[in-house]
Amino acid sequence: MSEKRLNGDDHLERSIDWKQGLAIALGVPLLILPSLGYIPLYMSAAAILIWGLSVLQGFMQSTAYAEMATTFTKASGLPGIAQHVFRTENYQGKYDKGKLIGGFSAWSYWFAWTPVLAIFSILVGGYLHGLFPVLGETFTEYQLSLMAGVVIFTGLFVVNWFGLKDGAKLGYILAALSLIPLVILAVAPFATGHVELSNITGSWWPTDWAWDLHHVLILLGIFAIAQWSACAWETAAIYGPEYKNPSKDVPKALFACGIICFLLFVLVQSSVIGVLGVRGVLAEPVSPLIPVAQAAFGQAGSMITIIMLIFAMILIIQTAYLGSSRAMHSMATEGNLPKSLGKLNRHGTPFVAMLVIGAFNLVLISLGNPASIVAASAIGYTFANGISLFAYVRAKKHPAFADLERPFKAPKNWKNVAMVFGLFNVPLCLIGLVYLNSLEVGWTSTLIGFIVLALYIPIWLYSQHESRLSNNKVTVGV
């Protein structure tokens, strides 16, 4: 047990280097799986361009995040940073509006990552249902998804009980089992000659596209959906308080993961469209990699692909489980959620948060539609990025933060870049996302998204009441 734990200090332990942080974040390229057939539905082969631009957007945003993560080294990634920057020091009133804004950003980030567990558990159930006919005869897809969720959540909870370092070791193993075959599927069709460039160039842009308000709103919504996948490698920064050397480890982990994401997002979408064509992709919107594998490797290839995808999904569930539990821990330690959610075990794992997240996702699995959950989750991610970028601007301009040491500095005047992308997220992409959701999956996802986000208000008010009671007890005790 560390000295910090003995002293009762409820801080996360510095136990990982940039390679371990990268290993945990390497699940992010797999977030392309739910949208491989979705983005081409609206953008045809230009989906390749959308992915590339979205990863570049991630570089712009993550440059700001890297500076903040190394400046506020005691804050837990984006959730902790936004809370720290917006709160008012020594606030004497009843409710600190700045603290509410920072906490809402963290809650939005939590809601962006948490549903990943349910989304990929549903996909695992679906693939198992198709892979093993005997299972399909005995169980429904929902039952398989629910069982997969229980088994995966329990297994990851046990592994991560012993701390983030062991979670990173699991990440190394799963990355090898899932990312290497994903790279093969991205490159092999080009090597074997199964990619027809005419499938890409002949359907580069939708034939009915017009630059009117309707299509511009769709484009903004598409960027919001793509960002949910292609910019999520900022998760490497969320472990800022747990890196041994944050000033060096955070930028290395972030940008190494960003380069990997750029190559994989562009190559995987190019491979799928190049082999199947846009119409072929739309015919297999959920699992277009399976016919790609069949084309490149034959029938045996499809079996390998499904097994690879299952390992890949467990990896991204691991990434989401760790990220969302740290976000919840950060909110609890900042006083923006009930203190019980910030409890750590002796290994420094926020086990109460992990239990709550697992239970919440078992409920989400009952929705049964990954696209609907992604649509709702992306609302939270758009809010989180917008507010976090505004936090960067505030941290650069506010006198309280002017003299802080900044081991990693973004290029000069990067606050202007952050402001542009902050406004791009909120309100532009947010409006586009709500509009796109109304066209594609109706209003249910939008309502679920905003209801979950709105639930933060009463929870936050309760947390403030809890904090005041705790402070009063301390005062009486003194």
Question: Can you walk through the features of this model?
Answer:
It comes from Arthrobacter livingstonensis. It is a single chain. This protein has helices spanning 3-6, 18-25, 39-43, 47-71, 77-86, 97-113, 116-131, 133-138, 141-160, 164-191, 197-201, 213-230, 246-283, 289-297, 299-333, 351-364, 370-397, 399-402, 414-440, 444-454, 456-477. It has 478 residues and is mainly alpha-helical. It has a single domain, classed as Amino acid/polyamine transporter I.
Distance between the termini: 30 Å
Shape: globular
> In CATH, what is the homologous superfamily?
Amino acid/polyamine transporter I
Unreliable segments of 5+ consecutive residues: 1-10
String of helices and strands: HHHHHHHHHHHHHHHHHHHHH
Rounded mean pLDDT is: 86
Structural class: mainly alpha
Helix content: over 70%
Strands, count: 0
- The percentage of residues in β strands lies in under 5%
Radius of gyration: 22 Å
For this structure, the CATH topology is Amino acid/polyamine transporter I
Domains (count) = 1
Give the helix tally: 21
The CATH class designation is Mainly Alpha
Q: How is the main sheet built?
A: none
CATH architecture tag: Up-down Bundle
